[in-house]
């Protein structure tokens, strides 16, 4: 039961601020010695004091916290003499462990009695269908259920009656706050349940061996298919022995949705995090489980957890597992092959050849409608930089990311000669009308509308998006072997974002090893192609498989399979060419953790604003050169480089 105003029950009174104070007036977040009964992430009711503080801080952005009322008394007020039987250890109200009732809609508060986990006898037994009789005068609880021996537990006695037998207990039941506290393991096992202990995370899992494990999973539907895959869920139940409730979320607002879930304490059992570095070590540990020991049984998952781009390790302990992906699955210039054919142009290989094609697209009526209504290319910018025009920077700098590591040093390509060439190329193209005039102000959706409306001949598209746009009226082909000039090195798409990360959450009612076993099995079938051989799966089921287990190889991706036969060869050639290039040693995923703090947002925003002004012709290339010199000499920039160097050293 939860309440907001029970000062007497929780020992809390609301302060003027969003923080809470105890009766003594001390702020909850400082030196108060009282153990407050604070809810931990929604349904999880029991945590130790420190974890409660972390959870409270994490959820503060969504309206503060709600005090939890203590469980109702077993019945009428017990005999006062029996209350005195409460042990000194128990009277300290020490939280022994997080007790999760896996197969029933219940969580259990716990206490420690000389190393024995104690829980409310009534809550435990009623949750699994026992009828409870409470003798207030004698301080005894009798529990009965058809087909099971009756159970009698009494305060102050280290023996219990189980049917006709008398059984010794590890600790005597006692009464505290109107509740009869009983030994967890004995009581659960007497009722036919099992208890598993996770020492690393201090969790006791109470499970019904006859029940199917139930997990709730949230992941991003990159293919935008969010319908429930009934056949796949049925397969999980019948063949993998697990009941999976899927929450498939559209990619456009996935990060915001998951952040709200984390803050609200509604994380389910397992969750995919988009850029796990946005969460500090302390915050991530507050809602993600330590998987270090459990992963020893799953080499495949342990290897994924070791990936710098998606795994997450804190102080040598593993908390996150990367979802497999092909690093070349990223936006890259794709071109209208049908426009090239109509104009008699070859597919460009250098930036000057691209420029020449854009000029024809903008001025030679490539769609044949007799109107001057086409652009060479369209796109949009992002808060982080030039957005869908960043590939131009990559062509001249040779790096898909602004900051990279070369010969052990952090290099800022934005201040190099390659960036100057890229801006000069873009400014010239804009001046000649080859670039959509609205690029600096329009949204991704507006740019997509122009692409679908046959207004642009080139755009930065993922393989999936290019394939979806290809049909009878348009033929989009991804470029491969693209380089700055004939002497340059070919570039390739590279996903510079942190690989998505699976965590097992602290709200899970299923033991981590059970979840990891299912995840490992699904990934193994994905690697071997075994999922393709399962009969009875529809498009919804197969789309969900990709959202769950990723697409580690673009050559075996659904996107490639969806390309019309006449153009599939060009896509396969492009992917094979891309896979010859890797930027893994130059890109440092941990850098994104620094950007997520917003610490250097103003510095980076100023850089982007200056770049845009150069492209629009509002600033000259000489102005750009002077700006970069001033930036390089500034103290904030030097501090930024120092932090990046430290992160690069940690990631090395």
Describe this structure in words.
By secondary structure, the protein is an alpha+beta fold. It folds into 4 domains: 7-62, no CATH class; 80-207, Copper amine oxidase-like, N-terminal domain (Copper Amine Oxidase, Chain A, domain 1, 2-Layer Sandwich), CATH 3.30.457.10; 214-327 and 497-552, Periplasmic binding protein-like II (D-Maltodextrin-Binding Protein, domain 2, 3-Layer(aba) Sandwich), CATH 3.40.190; 332-493 and 562-651, Periplasmic binding protein-like II (D-Maltodextrin-Binding Protein, domain 2, 3-Layer(aba) Sandwich), CATH 3.40.190.10. It is 35% helix and 19% strand. Strands 17-16-18-27-20-19 form a 6-stranded mixed β-sheet, with helices on both faces. Strands 7-8-9-10-11 form a 5-stranded antiparallel β-sheet, with helices on one face. A 4-stranded mixed β-sheet has the order 4-3-15-14, with helices on one face. A hairpin with a 2-residue loop joins strand 5 and strand 6. Helix 2 (49-59) packs across helix 9 (281-287) and helix 14 crosses helix 22 (601-616). The longest helix has 17 residues, at 512-528. The two termini are 50 Å apart. 42% of the residues are buried. Mean pLDDT is 84; it is low at 1-94.
């Amino acid at each position: 039961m939860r309440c907001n105003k029970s000062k007497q029950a929780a020992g809390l009174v609301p302060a003027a601020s969003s923080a809470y104070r105890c009766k003594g007036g001390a702020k909850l977040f400082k030196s108060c010695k009282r153990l407050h009964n604070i809810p931990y992430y929604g349904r999880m009711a029991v945590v130790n004091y420190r974890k409660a503080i972390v959870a409270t801080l994490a959820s503060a952005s969504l309206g503060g916290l709600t005090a939890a009322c203590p469980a109702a008394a077993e019945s009428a007020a017990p005999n006062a003499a029996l209350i005195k039987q409460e042990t000194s250890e128990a009277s300290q109200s020490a939280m022994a462990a997080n007790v999760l009732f896996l197969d029933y809609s219940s969580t259990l508060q716990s206490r420690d009695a000389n190393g024995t986990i104690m829980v409310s006898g009534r809550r435990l037994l009623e949750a699994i269908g026992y009828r409870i009789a409470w003798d207030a005068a004698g301080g005894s609880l009798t529990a009965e259920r058809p087909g099971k021996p009756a159970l009698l537990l009494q305060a102050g006695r280290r023996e219990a009656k189980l049917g006709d037998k008398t059984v010794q207990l590890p600790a005597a039941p006692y009464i505290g706050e109107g509740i009869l506290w009983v030994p967890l393991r004995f009581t659960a096992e007497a009722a036919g349940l099992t208890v598993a202990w996770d020492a690393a995370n201090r969790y006791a899992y109470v499970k019904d061996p006859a029940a199917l494990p139930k997990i709730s999973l949230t992941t991003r539907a990159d293919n935008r298919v969010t319908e429930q895959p009934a056949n796949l869920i049925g397969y999980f139940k019948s063949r993998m022995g697990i009941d999976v409730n899927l929450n498939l979320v559209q990619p456009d607002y996935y990060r915001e949705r998951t952040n709200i879930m984390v803050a609200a304490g509604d994380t389910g059992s397992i969750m995919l995090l988009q850029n796990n570095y946005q969460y500090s070590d302390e915050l991530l540990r507050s809602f993600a489980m330590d998987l270090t020991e459990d992963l020893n049984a799953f080499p495949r998952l342990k290897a994924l957890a070791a990936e710098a781009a998606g795994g997450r390790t804190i102080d040598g302990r593993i908390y996150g597992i990367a979802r497999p992906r092909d690093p070349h699955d990223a936006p890259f210039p794709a071109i209208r092959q049908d426009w090239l054919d109509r104009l008699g142009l070859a597919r460009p290989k250098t930036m000057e050849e691209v420029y020449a094609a854009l000029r024809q697209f903008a001025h030679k009526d490539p769609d044949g409608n007799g109107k001057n209504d086409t652009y060479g290319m369209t796109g949009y910018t992002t808060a982080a930089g030039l957005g869908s025009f960043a590939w131009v920077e990559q062509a001249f700098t040779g790096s898909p990311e602004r900051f990279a590591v070369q010969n052990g040093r952090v290099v800022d390509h934005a201040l190099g000669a390659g960036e100057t060439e890229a801006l000069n190329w873009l400014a010239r193209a804009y001046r000649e009308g080859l670039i959509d005039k609205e690029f600096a102000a329009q949204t991704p959706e507006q740019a997509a509308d122009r692409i679908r409306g046959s207004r642009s001949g080139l755009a930065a598209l993922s393989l999936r998006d290019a394939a979806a746009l290809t049909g009878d009226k348009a033929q989009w082909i991804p470029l491969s072997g693209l380089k700055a000039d004939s002497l340059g090195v070919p570039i390739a798409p590279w996903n510079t974002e942190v690989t998505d990360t699976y965590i097992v959450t602290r709200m899970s009612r299923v033991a981590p090893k059970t979840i990891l076993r299912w995840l490992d099995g699904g990934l193994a079938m994905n690697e071997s192609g075994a999922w393709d051989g399962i009969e009875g799966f529809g498009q919804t089921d197969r789309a969900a498989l990709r959202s769950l287990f990723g697409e580690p190889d673009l050559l075996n991706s659904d996107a490639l399979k969806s390309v019309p036969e006449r153009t599939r060869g060009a896509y396969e050639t492009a992917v094979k060419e891309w896979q010859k290039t890797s930027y893994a040693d130059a890109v440092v995923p941990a850098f994104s953790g620094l950007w997520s703090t917003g610490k250097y947002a103003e510095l980076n925003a100023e850089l982007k604003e200056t770049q845009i002004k150069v492209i629009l012709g509002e600033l000259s290339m000489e102005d750009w050169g002077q700006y970069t010199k001033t930036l390089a000499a500034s103290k904030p920039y030097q501090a930024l480089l120092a932090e990046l160097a430290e992160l690069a050293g940690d990631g090395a």
